[in-house]
């Protein structure tokens, strides 16, 4: 039985599909032409392409080929801020473009489409979230990177899934109580691991929430030698079955370093491009999702990430529209909690 929130999320995704926002299929000749065109436009426009692990492998390959980067949201923004290009072209979802803008306010930040968003960002509107925080003034506000610039500006800390445990542990050691937003599964995982006193916002990722423990158990029976890699935005029943729980970068590292030859991977299937590069010769299998339901067919791929394609990427370079705008005031306020994370000692 779906909750009201899950149903609303599904309707939201269906609306996007219904409006045909997804790029159409291209022939290999069209792909090659567009790739050449984009490579030359990137040079002409002094632009650098940064792509997220969950985007189409064609875009990830293009980012690498053009001297850009493929990474998680924070690394994308960090790479962009250190790159000499005056324009950053961000293939991903909107909060990633905003994070890039916050760390590089002097640069123009473009995206293939500004309509690519995220269920975590959508499920945490700043007015509601701010009113919630106001009720608990003695709590430290920790938000996940998958939030709008306005929500980041309301927070004391911004964290990614790779650093969330360490930051919350650090705060709990100081006796701090925490408001966590927006992902309830990741929040619950962090709470269990750290024992911190945490109030959780009720948000979820529509992709990771679809992974199912029952299907995973059945798949594990077929491939008992496979290690299970799980992103902590997944439900706790799936996380409990994991050999490794971690961020996108941590899961890629695990596939490369664990001795197993086979992995069942519970995160967006876009990650397979970089994971296979890091672990050549190893077998990667998608973790099972909910399958075909009454309202939509669930799959391990984000519908908003899928809105990034070669054509709209070329178009935005030609037209220069789809630019991320964040006010100076918001940039200044959102930068503080982001910087706190960037300055947090990595090896603590
Ligand atoms: S995969 Fe989930 S968390 Fe990532 S952008 Fe899509 S909806 Fe948001």
TrEMBL record:
Has the keyword Iron been applied to this entry? yes
Q: Which residues form the signal peptide?
A: none
- A cellular-component GO term for this protein: cytosol
Q: What does the record give under GO molecular function?
A: 4 iron, 4 sulfur cluster binding; metal ion binding; quinolinate synthetase A activity
Pathway assignment: Cofactor biosynthesis; NAD(+) biosynthesis; quinolinate from iminoaspartate: step 1/1
Entry keywords, A to Z = 4Fe-4S, Cytoplasm, Iron, Iron-sulfur, Metal-binding, Pyridine nucleotide biosynthesis, Transferase
- Which Enzyme Commission number(s) are on file for it? 2.5.1.72
As cofactor, the record names: [4Fe-4S] cluster
* GO terms for biological process, alphabetical: 'de novo' NAD+ biosynthetic process from L-aspartate
What is the enzyme's class at the highest EC level? Answer: transferase
Report the Gene3D superfamilies cross-referenced here: NadA-like
What's the protein name?
Answer: Quinolinate synthase
| Species name | Nitrincola lacisaponensis
Organism classification: Bacteria, Pseudomonadati, Pseudomonadota, Gammaproteobacteria, Oceanospirillales
């Amino acid at each position: 039985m779906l909750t009201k929130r899950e149903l609303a999320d599904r309707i939201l995704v269906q609306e996007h599909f219904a409006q045909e926002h997804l790029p159409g299929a291209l022939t290999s000749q069209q792909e090659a032409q567009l790739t050449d065109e984009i490579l030359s436009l990137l040079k002409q426009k002094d632009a650098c392409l940064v792509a997220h692990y969950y985007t189409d492998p064609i875009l990830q390959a293009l980012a690498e080929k053009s001297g850009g980067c493929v990474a998680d949201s924070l690394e994308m923004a960090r790479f962009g801020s250190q790159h000499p290009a005056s324009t950053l072209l961000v293939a991903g979802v909107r909060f990633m473009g905003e994070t890039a803008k916050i760390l590089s306010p002097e640069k123009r930040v473009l995206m293939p489409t500004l309509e690519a968003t995220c269920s975590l960002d959508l499920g945490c509107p700043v007015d509601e979230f701010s009113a919630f925080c106001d009720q608990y003034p003695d709590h430290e506000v920790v938000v996940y990177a998958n939030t709008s610039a306005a929500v980041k500006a309301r927070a004391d800390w911004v964290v990614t899934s790779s650093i969330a445990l360490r930051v919350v542990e650090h705060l709990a050691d100081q006796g701090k109580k925490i408001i966590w937003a927006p992902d309830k599964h990741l929040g619950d995982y962090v709470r269990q691991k750290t024992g911190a006193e945490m109030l959780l916002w009720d948000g979820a990722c529509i992709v990771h929430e679809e992974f199912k423990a029952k299907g995973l158990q059945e798949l594990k029976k077929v491939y008992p030698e496979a290690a299970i890699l799980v992103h902590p935005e997944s439900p706790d029943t799936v996380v409990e079955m994991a050999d490794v729980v971690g961020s996108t970068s941590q899961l890629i590292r695990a596939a490369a370093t664990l001795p197993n030859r086979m992995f069942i991977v519970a995160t967006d299937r876009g990650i397979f491009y970089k994971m296979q590069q890091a672990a050549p010769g190893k077998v990667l299998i998608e973790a099972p999702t909910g399958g075909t339901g009454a309202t939509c067919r669930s799959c391990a791929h984000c519908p908003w990430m899928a809105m990034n394609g070669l054509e709209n990427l070329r178009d935005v370079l030609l037209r220069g529209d789809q630019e991320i705008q964040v006010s100076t005031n918001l940039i200044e306020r959102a930068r503080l909690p982001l910087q706190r994370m960037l300055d947090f000692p990595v090896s603590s």
